[in-house]
Amino acid sequence: MSTEQILSSDGIPLEISLKKAERKNKFRAVMLVGPLFLFLIITYVFPIGDMLFRSIDDRKITQMLPNTFTAIEKWDGQDLPGEPVYAALYEDLAYLKKNKTYGKIIARLNYEKGGFSSLIKKTVRKLGKFEEGNYKEQFIEVNKRWGQNDYLVSLKNAAPNWTFAKYLKGVDLKYDQNGSIVEQPEDRRIHKVLWLRTLKVAFWVTIFCFILAYPISYLLATLPMKYSNLLMICVLLPFWTSLLVRTSSWMVLLQQQGPINDLIVWLGFAANDARPELMYNVIGTFVAMTQILLPFMVLPLYSVMKTISPSLMRAGKSLGGTPFVAFRKVYFPLTIPGIGAGSLLVFILAIGYYITPALVGGASGSLISNTIAYHMKSSLDWSFAAALGTMLLVGVLTIYWIYNKLVGIDNIKLG
Amino acid sequence: MSLPNYTAWNYRIWHYTYLTICGLVFFFLIAPLFIILPLSFNAEQYIHFSAGMLALDPDAFSLRWYEDMIYGTKNPWGLAAKNSIIIAFFATIGSTILGTVAALGLSSRYMPYKAAFMALLISPMIVPLIISGTAIFFFMAKVGLAATHTGIILAHIILGTPFVVITVTATLTGFDHSVTRAAASLGSNPVNTFMKITLPLILPGVISGALFAFVTSFDEVVVVLFLAGLENTTIPIQMWVGLREQLSPTIMAVATCLIIMSTLILVSAELLRRRSERLRGINR
């Protein structure tokens, strides 16, 4: 069964000519997306990868104690290491002393084991009096901690170029002397609480946003256009207003002498001199975040509800369902895509919230983002900030992936 | 929503309860914004309603905080406003051009791996700002753009493009491609077709995307907190600094100005959206 090959006007088979045209169109589409794609790869994706890299990078100390780490690599960690390790350590420390850069290893080693700070400082001070040869004895003479196995094991543990220690710290774990993973001491377990609080706040903010958004989205979707447009402004105005303005209005409302407290006192729920603390704790974070994120729940719900024909509810009722049954069996299931879209969006935004918790949350209302910012700006433990950031990022991207599967990213609605 | 006459009393009660609940939610959404307006006209320097204000005594109100905002010697609002406007202006232009062009490509039916590209291009909107801020800070420090306007503008272009991509792709979904084909068959080259046919039709979407990008940049704190030096301070940074110290009536005055601005932007965005729907023949 042979078919006559169809030719285009210039004599090329139509199939080839069509393929060529399609390839051209494809190329054109890719070229249009290209500039933004490259821009984001360079200024955004690559830096995020770099941040991930920074969180496991432990090369700084390796570069500062190169000889020691090479020498200590062969040591099995059982008995005290031999002379070569001490000789190498002397060489490294003498070099660091000459360049006055030994301060940088102190913090890193002290993180591995407390007591290293004073040990290094003391040793470096006496380094000038060291004589050639028999360094092991001289080190132990300066401080007998150099003769204790656990300090040298800690030194060995700091040797690898890459470490997951910062990630472990992010979930209140650490490497012990033997390199196995154990829990942090009780008084240093602060991050698990923080993660749990972040998840809890994000979860409850999502639930409350849903509870508040559902009735008003329904009203907006069913009211005649001229009324619903007016009411829509109540949703869109906060949406377009500066986040800081909205947060500051909550600071005004929730302060101790503020209107809400006035109302509580006036209603007699609290005495005037015992006004409840509504701000600088988790209540403040919670209330403010719910109001600020509410539009992100209303808009997807509204756009889904808008597409549901009112005749479906009427049909349900005419078939003998009470309005409640008709709602539950007919209307509600149809709104589930909107609920999913809104909830995932609110949850994603809530989990990484920074500004509002920082301003109204105080210590007990701060979330994981605030801790990342603290390590970036105050404690300057950038690799730890990067590790926490990476963990948060993985969580968010997982939800984003689910969102993309369920809702489709091109269905995000704005305004 | 008036009820028909035959409605049973229990549904009547339920209906009015429902409307009350809705009213309360709308109140919860909008009322916090309006608390700021009267307080910015406070004659005293405290952030609560004085007895005089509650009695509507004219002496309890004044414009002194607005004067302070504009002429106050120690107030950095002038520089901040200038920086904010410059940064937002260039960031908006950058995101609008990059975003619109990318949206054109993404809407083409020949685009391969559409979903994956879309997911990547939207991601700056989804990734927590603190992470974007950290990553962009490291990058800008490396290339020597930290504490410069250029660095902040680039960062804001990153954050603004997703909004443009979303609004323009949404506008293009209802786009009738036969008009561009008609233009091409009449001998117009692609650039000319875009400028004369496509752009005027999708312009409302482009402008509303640009408005989003502008607001994103104008309102952005977290990334600027990392990137800005003393010279690059912006309005949100100054508000942030002020709010961390203490609530001052001057901040209320600034906030009032910002609310007025966002109202204007909201109105224009709404008008544009309706125009866009009319142009695309969507009747509601």
Automatic annotation (TrEMBL), chain A:
SUPFAM superfamilies: MetI-like
Its membrane topology: Multi-pass membrane protein
Residue ranges annotated for the ABC transmembrane type-1 domain, each copy included: 195-403
Pfam families: BPD_transp_1 (PF00528)
Transmembrane segments: 27-46, 201-221, 227-245, 278-302, 330-351, 382-403
Keyword Disulfide bond found: no
PROSITE patterns tied to this protein: ABC_TM1 (PS50928)
Record's subcellular location: Cell membrane
Family from the record: Belongs to the binding-protein-dependent transport system permease family. CysTW subfamily.
Official protein name in the record: Spermidine/putrescine transport system permease protein
The organism's taxonomic lineage, starting at the top: Bacteria, Pseudomonadati, Pseudomonadota, Alphaproteobacteria, Candidatus Pelagibacterales
TrEMBL record, chain B:
Annotated localization: Cell inner membrane; Cell membrane
Membrane topology, record value: Multi-pass membrane protein
Main subcellular location of this protein, as a coarse class: membrane
Source organism: Pelagibacter ubique
InterPro entries: MetI-like (IPR000515), MetI-like_sf (IPR035906)
Segment forming the signal sequence: none
The entry's keywords: Cell inner membrane, Cell membrane, Membrane, Transmembrane, Transmembrane helix, Transport
Record's keyword annotation contains Transport: yes
Name used for this protein in its record: Spermidine/putrescine transport system permease protein
Pfam families: BPD_transp_1
Family from the record: Belongs to the binding-protein-dependent transport system permease family.
TM helices/strands, residue ranges: 16-39, 85-106, 118-141, 153-176, 197-230, 250-272
Stretches assigned to the ABC transmembrane type-1 domain: 81-269
Top-level taxonomy: Bacteria, Pseudomonadati, Pseudomonadota, Alphaproteobacteria, Candidatus Pelagibacterales
Cited SUPFAM superfamilies: MetI-like
